[in-house]
Specification:
By secondary structure, the chain is mainly alpha-helical. Helices cover 72% and strands 4% of the residues. Strands 1-2 form a two-stranded parallel ribbon.
C-alpha cells in the first residue's frame, strides 16, 4: 500500500514538472514582453486652421494688397466703359452710312471687345492671385505647426473641427456628409496649439 502511494506521488510530481516546462517554453519571452512595453507613445496636438487664418496679421496685409489690386482693375474697367458709352453717344449724332460714322462704329466695337477681354483677364488674374495667397498662407501654417510641434514634443498635428457646429435645417444628405467628414470629435485644451502657432507666426511676420 505504501509502495502504491509512493508511485502515485511520483507520477503527480512528473506531471507538475512537465506542465511547468510547457508553460515556460510556450509563454511570452522576457525579450518579447520588454519589446511590447517599450513601444513609443504618440503625442498628438490639434490646430484649427480657420482660427489661425483669422488671427494672422499677414493674411490681413495680403488681403489688403489683393483688394487694392481689385479696385485698381475695376477703376480701369469703369473708365473703359465710360469711354465706350461716350463714343456710342457720338454715334447718335452722325449720319448713317457715312465714312466718319463707320469709323466710329468700328472704334466702338473694338472698345467693347477690349473691355470684355480686360474684364475676363482681370477676373482670372484675381482668382489666381487669391489661390496663390491661400496656398502660401497654408504652407506657412503647416511649416509653423511643424516647427512648434518639434519644439514642444508633439508627434502629430491634426486639423481640428470639433468646435464647428453642424447647422440645423440642412437636407439629410448634406447633414450626413457633414457628420462623416468630421476629423476630430473632441480635443482637450492642453493639446490645442491654435493660439500658440498663430502667435508664433504673427511674431515672425512683424519682426
Amino acid at each position: 500500500m505504501t509502495e502504491q502511494r509512493t508511485w502515485r506521488w511520483a507520477a503527480l510530481a512528473c506531471v507538475a514538472m512537465s506542465m511547468t516546462f510547457f508553460l515556460v517554453r510556450t509563454g511570452p519571452s522576457a525579450d518579447a514582453t520588454s519589446t511590447r512595453l517599450a513601444a513609443p507613445t504618440t503625442s498628438v496636438a490639434v490646430l484649427n486652421l480657420g482660427k489661425v487664418l483669422e488671427a494672422r496679421d499677414e493674411r490681413t496685409v495680403r488681403e489688403g494688397e489683393l483688394q487694392r489690386e481689385i479696385e485698381s482693375r475695376e477703376a480701369t474697367l469703369k473708365q473703359m466703359q465710360e469711354e465706350r458709352q461716350q463714343l456710342v453717344a457720338v454715334l447718335d449724332t452722325l449720319t448713317r452710312g457715312t465714312p466718319e460714322r463707320e469709323a466710329k462704329v468700328e472704334e466702338a466695337v473694338r472698345k467693347q471687345a477690349t473691355f470684355e477681354f480686360e474684364g475676363n483677364l482681370a477676373e482670372r488674374l484675381i482668382a489666381r492671385q487669391r489661390t496663390e495667397m491661400q496656398l502660401m498662407l497654408f504652407n506657412k501654417i503647416k511649416d509653423a505647426a511643424k516647427a512648434y510641434a518639434d519644439a514642444e514634443g508633439f508627434d502629430i498635428v491634426l486639423t481640428s473641427d470639433h468646435e464647428t457646429q453642424i447647422p440645423d435645417g440642412m437636407p439629410a444628405n448634406e447633414t450626413n456628409a457633414a457628420i462623416l467628414s468630421r476629423r476630430v470629435l473632441h480635443a482637450n485644451e492642453r493639446v490645442d496649439i491654435t493660439s500658440a502657432v498663430a502667435q508664433r507666426m504673427n511674431n515672425e511676420f512683424n519682426r
